[in-house]
Amino acid sequence: MATEIIKQVIAEWLHDKVFPPLIKRDMPNPELEAASEIIALAGPRRAGKTWYMYQLIQDLLGKGNWRREDILFVDFEDYRLQDFTATDTEALFTAFQQVAGRAPTFVFFDEIQQLPGWSRVLRTLHNQNRYKIVVTGSNAGLLEKDIATELRGRCRNILMMPFSFREFLRFHGIPSDELTLLTPARGSMLNAFEHYLHEGGFPEVVKKETISEKRELIQNYYRTIFYRDILERYNIKAKAVLEAVMRYGLNTFSDLFSISMLEKELKRHKLPGSKQTISNYLGYLQEVFFLAAHDKFSYSPRQRMMNPKKIYLVDTGFSLLSAEFSENRGKLLENAVAVELFRQRMECYYYKGRRECDFIIKEGIRPKVAIQVCWELTPKNESREAKGLQEAMNALRIEEGIILTNDEAKELIVDGGRIRVMPVWRWLMSSETRFG
């Protein structure tokens, strides 16, 4: 690759880059100056990974010990670097030293999966023990499975998601403390939750003023995932089948994903999707952070594999693209809970016996918490929701059970104990979203 192009990219970073206004994210502090591992930020596109890198860089510069010339930042989605390969890495560091006058101490590589042979590059740089390295990627497989095998013991993986509800409130300048719930500002918080539930937490989407602008931006994200992250990356030929699987996931969130039913639907439209193809595409949609999928709880791996998965959108904003004509607020509420559990990297399942329970949270070798989600408890559904939760708790010997609703708080007395009922927005704001 031409050295002059590399120098141009470096010079722009060192001299022209202006950081945008940043919202403080609730993320772990990797303490870069003392870090011995590669810090890998994985998460959906447009979730804020690049901006979090800027936040880390600003923190370094703010300490007064470091200058821009100590930091190499490369965005591998820069069209000028499309021909950059692993063999150009040495030229990159040589060019940086020529332009900056010194070798970098900190290396930030954005969207590293765009670099062919990226794991070999990172392993080589880490072995040199000269740099503090931070990378981002928009593929769960690349930054978890591959790193687990290629960079064992050399990498700390951090999940970066769109705004949490706390961060959403911070962006809008709305306090999220308990005192706020006792003042007229509670109304602003509840209104914000309604927007968060329907429009999601992608930072750039949150900034848009109108629903049409938000939908258009989310549609762009959808197309990028479809074409760039899946179609091109996995070299998929059956474009129409991928579109059908993606649309099916979009329209059946917070529900079971029936591979058999979708296969029949594809055949009805004379599309060639087999069960294995559909299963593969469902896996791809999870790897690129479009969907999250939960297995039915079982101690048997075979039983988990044999049963349908329950799927969720990784951001509720994608629901703006759903073809459903009637709004199902309960599904949105359940999806919002699933997103938060995914953010916390909880090991989650659903329960199905005689009755159903939405979430079983497992820690270690045993399930720990059971959660049921419904929009509101009424005389008609209260018994059903409570009994589904209670059956799961009894069957799996779980002591803690919670029913999350839109705006109810109370306790239910059931055989064998009590069940807490609380609003999802309070659960999202409180430390009780953390288990263990």
Structure description:
The chain is of the alpha/beta class. The protein folds into 3 domains: 3-160, Rossmann fold (3-Layer(aba) Sandwich), CATH 3.40.50; 208-326, Arc Repressor Mutant, subunit A (Orthogonal Bundle); 329-436, Trna Endonuclease, Chain: A, domain 1. Helix content is 43%, strand content 18%. The strands form 2 sheets. A 9-stranded mixed sheet has the order 6-8-7-9-10-11-12-14-13, sandwiched between helices. It has a 5-stranded parallel sheet with strand order 2-3-4-1-5, sandwiched between helices. Strand 10 (356-363) and strand 11 (366-373) form a beta hairpin.
Share of helix, binned:
40-55%
Structural class by secondary-structure content: alpha/beta
Main β sheet profile: 9 strands, mixed
Question: What count of structural domains?
Answer: 3
* Helical stretch tally: 16
CATH architecture tag of the largest domain: 3-Layer(aba) Sandwich
Cα shape: globular
- Please report the first level of CATH classification, the CATH class of the largest domain: Alpha Beta
Q: How many strand units?
A: 14
Please give the alpha-carbon distance between the first and last residues.
50 Å
β-strand amount: 15-25%
CATH evolutionary superfamily of the largest domain: P-loop containing nucleotide triphosphate hydrolases
Kindly report the average pLDDT value: 91
Strand arrangement, major sheet: 6-8-7-9-10-11-12-14-13
Here the CATH topology of the largest domain equals Rossmann fold
State Rg.
Answer: 23 Å
| Order of secondary-structure elements | HEHEHEHEHEHHHHHEHHEHEHEEEHEEEH
Low-confidence stretches: none
